[in-house]
Amino acid sequence: MMTPRKETVKNPRVRIAPSPTGYFHIGTARTALFNWLFAKKYDGKFIVRIEDTDKERSKIEFEKDIIEQMRWLGLTWDEGVEVGGDFGPYRQSECLDLYEKYLHQLIEKKRAYYCFCSAEELEIKKQEMMTRGESPRYDGSCRNLSADVIEEKLKNKIPYVIRIKTPDKKISFNDMIRGKVEFDCSLFGDQVIAKGFREPLYNFAVVVDDHHMRISHVIRGEDHLSNTPKQIVLYEALEWETPEFGHLPLILAPDKSKMSKRFGDVSVAEYRRTGYLAEALFNFIVFLGWHPEEKPGEVIKEILTKEEILESFDMKRVQKGGAIFNVDKLNWINSEHIKKLSINDLIEKSLPFLEESFGKEIFTDQKYLKKVIELHRERVKKLSDLTELIGYFFNLPDYPKELLVWKDSILENTKGNIDFLINLLSDLKNDNFTKNQLEVIVMPEAEKRGRGELLWPLRVALSGMKNSAGPFEIMPILGKKETLSRLKIALEKVQ
RNA sequence: GCUCCCGUAGUGUAGACCGGCCAAUCAUUCUAGCCUUUCGAGCUAGGGACUCGGGUUCGAAUCCCGACGGGAGCACCA
Questions:
Q1: ipTM for the whole predicted complex goes beyond 0.95
Q2: Are A191 and A257 a contacting pair, CB within 8 Å?
Q3: Where are the beta strands (DSSP E) in A360-414?
Q4: Is strand B in 7 Å reach of the CB of A471?
Q5: Residue A257 approaches strand B within 7 Å at CB
Q6: CA distances in angstroms from A307 to A14, A77, A310, A349, listed in the order given
Q7: Is residue A468's beta carbon less than 7 angstroms from any atom in nucleic acid strand B?
Q8: Which nucleotide minimizes the distance between its C1' and the CA of A450?
Q9: Where are the beta strands (DSSP E) in A197-307?
Q10: Is A413 exposed, middle or buried (0-12, 13-18, 19+ CB in 10 A)?
Q11: Which among A395, A422, A399, A406 has a CA at the least distance from the CA of A491?
């Protein structure tokens, strides 16, 4: 899979150019991340440009989301929207004068031309070519219109678009990830580059912007691979130097189809709301199609901080094949990052989730909350899990009485054991309500009566759950009074 | 239909450039055991892959060709 590529990079200028036509997508996040990493690694600049030439679909709400989520992920940019810079504007809708200028230049130099063909006739021709088994391309009808004819049509206000003259040749470029890639230009022909002088289309606007922002390396998704020759045609027509290109493999859904709405969550905000940590998502995403170098005899570390990732990052190790988004792995990475968090950080990050479920009032006792969270931190995959895990510490559990009965035991035994426990624990002093003391008192009895027989109903009475932390951990936190009260409730249930 | 890209366990990957050290690495997942009242965590063990067919070679996961499979693109979207 490895292809040798040249790599002597210094002070690169790279960019992420999202279009605000949807919420910040996990795929865009990855492209942003690799660009950011590349810039940091080689002491370059990372630029954020908003591609909002599609007036119909672009929304400010999406732009805000993109910026917010990038910040959340810990990405910082040197130039771009919100931070400014010397090569702006960084929003395509504000660069219209620039596009217009080059459009005129291209037409004057006869590298581009007016095309008066209607969309309908083009569609028919396209279908014909497809049925003939040819690659659909413009037939060049308007390519050599005389100046008189053009003037005439313009005067009569015949609608037009602007097309670039594509040379009949092969174009190849050296992709940073894929090595040499070659395309035959005759297959796509003269592309429309603008609908009008102030209505540039994507491929043209990108080229103008990248050139003006002095972008040295264009790192983007593989879906842009076949746009690259079209853009190179423009660089050549404009007599500009082409940047380096690098095409990242796509992120795929588990069925290997393109990551899309069909596969659950695709927006970064959604993962954030579900309780994934920014550093975990960062860690996970970077491992989609990339791995640090394995040193002989060394176990590869997969739980990495941003700094560690930066340390071992190398563009040469990016894979070519699409990477499947594996939620299991994300969950594991997230739980590992949660374990690394300090208890105070964990509380701070969990609180919004807890408050949403239980309300704010419940969390006035910080010490109590701290103990509860400490007890569960190793069981948490996502912060949102915490809500279910610790509910019984804040609300009285509700459960069917059958749950109190251990395996094949009977209600009578359960009743007797709960009654026994109430008496046993009532005699204990408040001070002795610690994990150790409780074990000393209760365990010998559990051995006599059967561990499950005694401990299972104890735990269920306290937590109301089939799976929960152990009774000796729960009791000290709940305290003697609450413990006894819950046991009495259990007793009533089985009466 | 045409073009381009890709093809190592369920998943992410190492190995490939420079063929032998590969009866193939690491992680995750899965299974079992230990621990344990349950679950989780932890520990231990195990399962699981070079897409196929030719060629080159003493020797191929690795080089070459072909097939097959998957993906992306082919707009007056970005």
A1: no
A2: no
A3: none
A4: yes
A5: yes
A6: 20, 16, 5, 21
A7: yes
A8: B37
A9: 199-200, 217-221, 244-248, 251-252
A10: middle
A11: A422
Q: Which nucleotides of B are covered by protein (CB under 7 A)?
A: 1-8, 10-17, 25-29, 36-41, 70-78
- Strand B contact at CB of residue A459, distance < 7 A: yes
Cα–Cα dist A118/A131, whole Å: 20
**Active-site residue numbers of A?**
261
Nucleic strand B near CB of residue A316 (< 7 Å): no
Which H or E element spans position A421? helix A411-426
Judge whether A30 and A288 are in contact, CB under 8 Å: yes
Q: Are A459 and A366 in contact (CB under 8 A)?
A: no
Cα–Cα distance measured from residue A462 to residue A459, given in angstroms and rounded to the nearest whole number: 5
- Tens of pLDDT, residues A127-172: 888 777 777 889 888 999 999 999 999 999 999 999 999 998 889 8
Q: Is the CB of A388 under 7 A from strand B?
A: no
pLDDT digits (tens, 9 = 90+) for A251-273: 988 888 877 655 666 899 999 99
A446 Cβ nearer than 7 Å to chain B strand: yes
Phi-psi region of A14 (alpha: psi -120 to 50; beta: other; left: phi over 0): beta
Q: How far is the CA of A386 from the C1' of B73 (A)?
A: 44
Are A285 and A356 in contact by the 8 Å Cβ rule? The answer is no
d(CA A3, CA A177): 8
pLDDT band (50, 70, 90) for residue A37 = very high
CA of A45 to C1' of B10 (A): 40
Nearest nucleotide, CA A202 to C1': B78
**Length A210 CA → B35 C1' (Å):** 60
Measured CA to CA, the distance from residue A401 to residue A491 in angstroms comes to 9
The pair of structure tokens assigned to A102 is 């080059």
For residue A296, say if its preceding peptide bond is cis, omega within 30 degrees of 0: no
Q: What is the pLDDT of residues A83-141, one digit of tens each?
A: 999 997 999 999 999 999 999 999 999 999 999 998 888 888 888 887 777 778 898 88
Distance A425 CA to B48 C1' (A): 51
Instruction: Find the Å distance, CA of residue A253 to C1' of nucleotide B11.
Output: 11
